[in-house]
Design goal:
Elements lengths: L4 H11 L23 E3 L3 E4 L4 E8 L3 E4 L2 E4 L2 E7 L7 E5 L4 E3 L3 E8 L9 E4 L1 E9 L2 E10 L4 E6 L4 E2 L7 E3 L10 E8 L4 E7 L5 E8 L3 E8 L6 E8 L4 E9 L2
Parallel strand pairs: 2-13, 14-21
Antiparallel strand pairs: 1-3, 3-9, 4-5, 6-8, 6-11, 7-9, 10-13, 11-12, 15-16, 16-19, 17-18, 17-20, 20-21
């Protein structure tokens, strides 16, 4: 999502996902965007069925975007709606008007008082935004009702799964090697004890495209994933331990 409105909208999409009162979320001080291309952290959403949900997202809108084949300087974007947003999920932006200035760190909180029971699925959503550019020192609407084309995939796990975007002290996953990859990629993880570990790979519309199980040893272990038959694009993979704890990362298939 480098230097593109697609990243911006992808970030906004996650931004849209919030549910507590204004001011109750705080951006993560460790999230930075040194090259001005935009940043969203975390970039994967997980919830448990039959449980409440509260996820804080840190968003830095990019300084520029690509619209109609040309590059524009962005003043700010305003999130308008999220397609396919489930009725049990709500959001609140900080600032409360969902207006995100380029290069400024903001946060959004995604919440649900109770994710309905019986769910074990994925939901595909697009974010719709207005894009403003600076003209004469004032923001002017450049693009209205813009669909990013970058979906948000909300993964709903069965009741009882433990979810932690940053991993656990005794169970976490490594960065994919290489990333982007062309055919095969090593998906590593660390576990303190030998146990049964599952791997699930999803495409950007939330469809599971691969699954595998292995019995791990203590320490670092690796799935050698062959994605040569996949189309180029962004994918998510989840590693799940015997306690149903889930850690997810994003990787990219590129020829």
């Amino acid at each position: 999502m480098k230097k593109s409105l697609r990243y911006l909208v992808f970030a906004s999409l996650f931004v849209l996902y919030t549910g507590f009162a204004f001011g109750q979320c705080t951006p993560d001080a460790n999230v930075v965007d040194p090259d001005g291309s935009g940043r969203l952290d975390p970039d994967t959403l997980h919830v448990n069925a039959n449980s409440p949900a509260a996820i804080t997202l840190t968003v830095i809108a990019p300084l520029t975007g690509n619209v109609g084949g040309g590059t524009i300087t962005i003043h700010h974007i305003t999130v308008k709606s999220l397609t396919n947003q489930p009725g049990w999920l709500s959001y609140v932006c900080n600032p409360g008007n969902c207006e995100f200035n380029a290069g400024v760190k903001n946060c959004v909180q995604v919440t649900s008082s109770l994710v309905p029971a019986g769910l074990d699925d994925t939901i595909y959503m697009d974010v719709i935004v207005d894009v403003y550019i600076p003209i004469g020192g004032m923001p002017v609407l450049a693009v209205s009702d813009y669909n990013a084309g970058m979906p948000l995939v909300l993964i709903i796990h069965p009741q009882g799964y433990g979810i932690n975007e940053n991993g656990y002290k005794d169970f976490n996953i490594n960065e994919p090697q290489p990333n982007p990859f062309t055919s095969t990629v090593k998906l590593g993880y660390f576990t303190a004890t030998p146990q049964a570990i599952s791997l699930k790979v999803f495409d950007m519309v939330g469809k599971e495209v691969y699954s595998e199980k292995m019995n791990s040893t203590s320490g670092e272990n690796y799935f050698n994933f062959d994605g040569s038959n996949l189309k180029d694009g962004v994918y998510f993979y989840s590693v799940i331990d015997a306690q149903n704890r889930v850690v997810t990362k994003k990787f990219v298939k590129s020829r």
